[in-house]
């Protein structure tokens, strides 16, 4: 799949709506569509909408082996996760211990952190050497105080597949319930909540070629009375989630799940072949390592580390829509918590990218991606040791920072793809610094933009960060900002980006 010249490899972040999903949704919009409020039982418009909602509920249930009455509509997996965890502990007076892992999505980790402030104790499991959460780790963490275990079925960054069926047996033996974040699993791997012993399961439509803004929480009928509503105002969804139901989005999710149920096997077979083709191509460069390659994992998601100190993920950004997981905690300047947990150091994490394939990925897309990696690696090798002296640190796809630059460094930066240079230190600040005029002269000769925006050391203000953010927004990207040590430039960007967020 391509958008103009950009090839899309970020299906783990979101998927395009399938045209058949869009067609079903359009039928619920406009005066000629089924636009009524599903809660309006007094007229045909409302009853027609209700029928479509219930049909979609059955379609979602069928995909995961549930009963339709066990599906609760939400705005997405993040809300579903919050409802499951907060809803459980709101009603649990004694077993106030949560077991989860350090590999979880922030929707779980941040919710767990919130629950800790409400006197819920939390155990955070670490992965085993292969990058998986082991059954032994879960069993060791559970006690007679454990009320809930929450684990993702498929990891969003590295694609590892957790053995939920075996873990559920251990969880239930300890007297606890099992919640599963299946946002990355639905439509990619077979799910049967009854056979697997799952009590609560979170889903999101936009990960399975449905619309954004709609999801669901599977709540087993045996545990529904133990979950407290978190959204009040009308008692919808069996009292678990109030709010007017968005018929068009719900129909979109139902259609997407029906398509996944009937096409998942063929989709997965094709995607597995494309994934292997991509892996073979990048491995042939001799400079790329696949992370967690020995783990049980889905073929859709690949975590790749480029083993060259010269590499920056932004070198691929013009041609490939990929995720640079090192930016997960960019405001704090930290690498992805998932990559850190599987043993990657900061430098390796900053040279790691996630490629995720999907329904509309083609063989031509894969071959194009392999060529892009080859090109980036060739540029890294051309720059050679000079780049290592620059100590470039990527903060986002748009901005990287470095200590003091020379004219040769500017040429090296241009060779690896930078289009703009910003100087954040005053000329003459330290002996031996190249004057900005010389930097600008070299940059101009290479067709790069160069701007002088000096800031006093130790005096980065909100106003200076705002000015820096505005400048970056206007410049050709990626941008390399520098000062004497790189710290000022990093602080400016982190402050600017946090204010934008």
UniProtKB/TrEMBL annotation:
The UniProt GO MF terms for this protein read: 2 iron, 2 sulfur cluster binding; cysteine desulfurase activity; hydrolase activity; metal ion binding
Q: Catalysed reaction(s)?
A: (sulfur carrier)-H + L-cysteine = (sulfur carrier)-SH + L-alanine
Q: Does the keyword Transferase apply?
A: yes
Q: Which cofactor does it need?
A: pyridoxal 5'-phosphate
Q: What are the residue boundaries of the Beta-lactamase hydrolase-like protein phosphatase-like domain, all occurrences included?
A: 392-497
Enzyme nomenclature, EC number: 2.8.1.7
Tell me the ranges covered by the Aminotransferase class V domain, including all copies.
8-367
| Classification via PROSITE patterns | AA_TRANSFER_CLASS_5
InterPro entries (alphabetical):
Aminotrans_V_dom, Aminotrans_V_PyrdxlP_BS, BLH_phosphatase-like, Prot-tyrosine_phosphatase-like, PyrdxlP-dep_Trfase, PyrdxlP-dep_Trfase_major, PyrdxlP-dep_Trfase_small
Identify the Pfam families for this entry. Aminotran_5 (PF00266), BLH_phosphatase (PF04273)
Swiss-Prot/TrEMBL keywords: 2Fe-2S, Iron, Iron-sulfur, Metal-binding, Plasmid, Pyridoxal phosphate, Transferase
Q: Which family would the database say this protein is a member of?
A: Belongs to the class-V pyridoxal-phosphate-dependent aminotransferase family. NifS/IscS subfamily.
Record-given protein name: cysteine desulfurase
């Amino acid at each position: 799949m391509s958008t103009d010249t950009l090839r899309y490899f970020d299906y783990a972040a979101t998927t395009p709506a399938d045209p058949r999903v869009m067609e079903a949704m359009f039928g619920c919009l406009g005066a000629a569509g089924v636009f009524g409020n599903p809660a309006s039982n007094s007229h045909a418009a409302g009853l027609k909408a209700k029928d479509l909602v219930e049909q979609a509920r059955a379609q979602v249930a069928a995909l995961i082996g549930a009963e339709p009455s066990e599906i609760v509509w939400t705005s997405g997996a993040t809300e579903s996760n919050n409802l499951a965890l907060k809803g459980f502990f709101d009603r649990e007076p004694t077993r106030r211990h949560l077991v989860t892992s350090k590999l979880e999505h922030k929707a779980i980790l941040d919710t767990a952190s919130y629950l800790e402030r409400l006197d819920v104790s939390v155990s955070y499991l670490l992965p085993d050497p292969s990058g998986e959460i082991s059954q032994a780790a879960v069993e060791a963490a559970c006690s007679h105080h454990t009320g809930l275990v929450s684990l993702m079925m498929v990891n969003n960054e590295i694609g590892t597949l957790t053995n939920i069926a075996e873990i559920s047996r251990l969880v239930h033996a300890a007297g606890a319930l099992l919640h599963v974040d299946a946002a990355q699993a639905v439509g990619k791997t077979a799910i049967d909540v009854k056979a697997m012993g799952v009590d609560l399961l979170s889903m999101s439509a936009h990960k399975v070629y449905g619309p954004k803004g709609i999801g669901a929480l599977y709540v087993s009928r045996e545990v529904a009375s133990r979950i407290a509503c978190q959204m009040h105002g009308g008692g919808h969804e069996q009292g678990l989630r109030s709010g007017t139901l968005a018929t068009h989005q719900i129909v979109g999710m139902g259609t997407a799940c029906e398509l996944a149920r009937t096409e998942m096997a063929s989709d997965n077979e094709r995607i597995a072949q494309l994934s292997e083709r991509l892996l073979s191509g990048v491995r042939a460069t001799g400079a790329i390592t696949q992370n967690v390659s020995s783990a049980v994992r889905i073929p859709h998601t690949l975590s790749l580390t480029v083993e060259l100190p010269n590499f920056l993920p932004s070198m691929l950004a013009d041609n490939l829509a990929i995720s640079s997981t090192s930016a997960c905690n960019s405001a704090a300047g930290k690498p992805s918590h998932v990559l850190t947990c599987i043993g990657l150091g900061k430098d390796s994490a900053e040279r790691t990218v996630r490629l995720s394939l999907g329904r509309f990925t083609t063989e031509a897309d894969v071959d194009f991606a392999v060529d892009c990696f080859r090109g980036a690696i060739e540029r890294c090798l051309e720059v050679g040791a000079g780049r290592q002296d620059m100590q470039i640190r990527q903060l986002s796809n748009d901005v990287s920072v470095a200590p003091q630059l020379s004219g040769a460094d500017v040429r090296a930066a241009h060779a690896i793809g930078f289009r703009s240079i910003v100087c954040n230190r005053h000329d003459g600040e330290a002996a031996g610094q190249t004057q900005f005029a010389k930097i600008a002269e070299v940059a101009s000769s290479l067709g790069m933009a160069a701007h002088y925006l000096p800031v006093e050391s130790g005096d980065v203000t909100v106003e200076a960060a705002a000015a820096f953010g505005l400048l970056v927004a206007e410049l050709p990207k990626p941008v390399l900002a520098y000062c004497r040590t790189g710290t000022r430039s990093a602080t400016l960007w982190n402050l600017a980006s946090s204010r934008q967020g």
